[in-house]
Structures are given as structure tokens and as C-alpha cells.
Design goal:
This protein has 6 helices and 9 strands, in the order βαβαβββααββββαα. The protein has 247 residues and is an alpha+beta fold. The chain starts with 5 loop residues before the first strand and ends in a 14-residue tail after the last helix.
Length: 247
Amino acid sequence: MAIQSVFQRHEIKYLIHTRQYHQILQAMEEYMEPDPYPRCHIRNVYYDTSDYRLIRASLEKPVYKEKLRLRSYGPISQEDTVFLELKKKYRSVVYKRRISLPHADAEEIMARGIPLPQGSQIAREIDYVRRFYPHLAPGMYLSYHREAWRERDGGEFRVTFDHDLLARTRALTLSVPPFGTALLDEDQYLMEVKAPGAIPLWMVRTLSQLGIYKTSFSKYGIAYQRLILQPNQGGFPHDIQPIQRVI
């Protein structure tokens, strides 16, 4: 799979239900086509400090925020390739930098705190963040099924639909199959539109006609609130309601 190493784009999120999902797919038929790898089961391990400094800072909605995660696009063994990814957001623009390396090597490098071997600009950026936040360790596992679409005729506009979001705070490795607490209802999807500039007018009209509005939804942030904050503080912060489903 050819996977891009550098991204710079706007990403906007929407929480939708199954009926809206099918309505959007119908509207997309004229303008979009399935990605070359249209369906995958993404697994992530997010790294953080012992007091969850990165995600706590992110939830305060600063102008600049960053996350560091290990990602795979399906089941893996220790020898398979994974992606160590630095995700940064400044105002409304998302920047991603990632490198590929064997899973066993990635876990060892992160556990021992040793520099990445590549020596590239991307590796130096990731190592800088690792030095700035010493003693980073696995803090959250997140998995979800993703369906990806791209603009026809080589355009850069993309749409993804994520569902079956699961989170856990144990077995924090990509090699253990997905299980955990569900973060969405069974009929919910997290839709993301991704573009280097403005969203196409046809999509803006579709969302307006269907009464769909953007939302602030950080997968890691919601998982942190559900699994770390709530057991200690009680209640459900912001507008997140309890979901009685654990897989």
C-alpha cells in the first residue's frame, strides 16, 4: 500500500446516522470514487505522559496542539510495518508527519527512548516531540473501521466514514486484536471531509440540505474523557452521553 508521509490540509468532522450516511453516499456518486484502498480496519496506540499531558492540553482547545501515535491499517505481527505519526494542528490546519518501520522496532524505540534511525526531517521532528515530552508511553488504544472516498479526476478532496470505534487502556499494543469500549452508537458514523482548501460547493449544499453540521470530535479526547476522567470524576463532560455497549 502506497501511504503518504506528509499531509497539510483542513479536516472537518461530522457525526451522522446511518440514514444520513446513505444520503451522502448518493450525493457523492457524481463527484467521488472509492479510494484505491477503500476499506480498512485502523488500529492506533496513542503515546502520552503519565499524567496525560498531551491530550489534556488538546482538550483545552489551544491554537496549537499535537499528538503522537503508532498506527496500522489491519492486523499485524511484530515484523509487519507500522507508522509512527506526529499529528499537529495549528488553528484549522492539520499537519501530519509519519515514518514507517517494523512494529517490533517501533515499540522498542519508543520504550527505550532512543532516536529514530532514519535521520530524515520527519524523524527529527518526531524525536523533538519525544524529547520535549520525556518518558512517553502507550496511553490509549483506539480502533475503527474506515471507508475512504476520493475526488474524481485526481482532485485532492477526500471523505472518510469511521464506525465501530473502540477504545481501551490495557493491552496497549497493535498486535493484540481490537476490543474495548464503544465510543459511538451502532448507527453512528464519524464523517471527515479533508481538503487542502475550501470544501466543494456541492458538498456544502448537501450537508446544508441534510441538516448536518460540523462537530468537535477527537477520538483520543473522547476516549480519555470516557475511560480516564469519568471513572474518577463521575458524569459525562460536555455533551457526550454514556453508551451502553462494550465489545
